[in-house]
Design brief:
The complex is a heterodimer of chains A (179) and B (77). Chain A is of the alpha+beta class. In chain A, 30% of the residues lie in helices and 28% in strands. Chain A is elongated, with a radius of gyration of 30 Å. Chain B is 79% helix and 0% strand. Classes of the chains: A alpha+beta (179), B mainly alpha (77).
Chain lengths: 179, 77
């Protein structure tokens, strides 16, 4: 019964009448298709397992981040060091977390993480346009709120919260956002 | 051996594998979407979705394992 169906798919000619290539490489196409799809299915289940491991890894990273807690406040510059219309790079909370402090007017100070939310290139302030530009893929962020205006980035830049005490500017925390 | 217990033909088994593969692919694509959405939320500081998404991904894996078990059962017949 089974063999009759299989026979429909194979070359019915006797071995001697088959073309030379079929005699040299007697591939059973049906069997080959079956094995290929079956093994691909197994590989996809392995991929599925890898995705669960990835999800758990994110959970562990989140646990570590929570344990680290809120970063301590740190003096980053004197107010006199940042004239209106200028920007000053600094690192906060760690030495490998580059940020930008910008003074847009006498009373308006803003600071954002300098890593573009697309692929972590350093963003460059364009004070005259009120924008932060990522030169790698021409991503553009609004300087007033850090939200993306154009280009590939979808998430806003993290806000560095600031406090001015006695003429000194302190970074007091990091606000990461999805929108 | 009753007709129902007979080992399916190769053509029949290939059709079953195609069916299983289609469902597995849909579940894996769903997991990929879950992973990217969770990563985006995590990088944006939102941790509320992390464990529910991990649970949903685990459910998808269990469904996939069930389908894989069916695939092995098909071989054993």
């Amino acid at each position: 019964m089974n063999t009759s169906i299989d026979k429909l798919n194979s070359n019915p000619k006797p071995e001697s009448q088959k073309p030379q290539w079929e005699q040299d490489f007697p591939i059973d196409v049906e069997q080959d298709n079956y094995v290929a799809r079956r093994d691909f299915t197994k590989f996809m289940v392995l991929t599925s397992f890898a995705f669960v491991v990835g999800q758990c890894w994110i959970g562990m990273e989140n646990f570590i981040r929570r344990r680290r807690g809120k970063p301590p406040a740190r003096a980053i510059a004197m107010l006199s060091q940042v004239p209106v219309g200028s920007a000053l790079p600094f690192a906060y909370p760690g030495e490998n977390d580059p940020c930008l402090l910008m003074r847009r007017s006498e009373a308006e100070l803003v600071a954002y993480g300098q890593k573009c939310t697309h692929l972590s290139c350093a963003v460059v302030p364009k004070m005259e346009l009120g924008q932060l530009l990522c030169p790698c893929h021409e991503g553009c962020f609004d300087m007033s709120n850090g939200r993306p205006l154009s280009g590939p980035p979808r998430r806003p830049l993290p806000i560095i919260t600031l406090e001015v005490r006695g003429g000194t500017i302190y970074a007091t925390g990091v606000q990461e956002r999805t929108v | 051996m009753t007709p129902l217990q007979r080992k399916p033909s190769l053509q029949h088994r290939t059709s079953i594998v195609y069916g299983i593969l289609s469902i597995v692919m849909i579940l894996v694509i769903l997991q990929l979407w879950l992973l990217t959405a969770t990563m985006n939320a995590f990088l944006g500081g939102d941790s509320a979705v992390i464990w529910p998404a991990a649970a949903a991904s685990l459910v998808c894996l269990l469904l996939n394992l069930g389908l894989l078990w069916n695939l092995y059962a098909l071989e054993r017949k």
